[in-house]
Design a protein that fits this description.
The protein has about 190 residues and is mainly alpha-helical. Helix content is about 80%, strand content about 5%.
């Protein structure tokens, strides 16, 4: 509680003093961008505060030298460097970054498709031809073959005969686990 009130008191005092000293662009950029960048990179408050300070210092130093080298406004270049750090963190953050989210979504889609394939195979008695399974699931060729490949690679299905697919014990237990998870979510009555 004390830290909260100390921060709430320090921010307006610093902001009012900084507006006259360095300008509105730099004040707003440095109040928002380094903490936002640190938030993308860590979840612990102490690490976030330290990283925010380091990003602010790095933005100021790098922005100053770039502004001197390019002969542009110092405050604007500092804000641009801070924005550049933010964009890098937004793209590359392992937990919240756009690229990590794309990979996570792709993995989830493939996992869901594999689970759907296993459930469909279980519904057909645990053994079927690839054509029967594809017709039962009403899937197109590319997504079906990719899901079948993923299930085979994971050891969930095997094909003893050409064109035939059967659940392994690992596949059966995965289907029963999935069914148990979904049945417990459905409200009764």
């Amino acid at each position: 509680m004390l830290v909260h009130y100390l921060l709430m008191g320090a921010v307006p005092i610093t902001t009012v003093g900084a507006f006259d000293s360095v300008g509105a662009i730099l004040v707003v950029a440095f109040l928002i961008v380094p903490p936002g960048t640190a938030y993308l990179l860590t979840e612990r408050l102490s690490s976030m505060m330290l990283l925010s300070v380091a990003l602010g210092i790095g933005s100021a130093v790098l922005g100053y030298y770039l502004a001197a080298a390019l002969d542009v406004a110092i405050a604007g270049m500092m804000a641009v460097v801070a924005g550049g750090f933010f964009m890098l963190a937004l793209l590359l953050s392992p937990s919240r970054g756009l690229i990590a989210n794309l990979f996570r979504q792709r993995r989830n889609r493939r996992s869901f498709a594999r689970d759907l394939l296993l459930a469909g195979l279980e519904r057909l008695g645990g053994r079927a031809t690839e054509e029967e399974l594809a017709r039962h699931l009403d899937w197109e060729g590319g997504s079906f073959s990719q899901s079948l490949k993923d299930a085979s690679r994971g050891g969930f299905v095997h094909g003893r005969l050409p064109g035939e697919v059967a659940l392994t014990e690992k596949g059966r237990s995965a289907v029963h686990r999935l069914i148990g998870e979904h049945v417990s979510v459905i409200p009764s009555g």
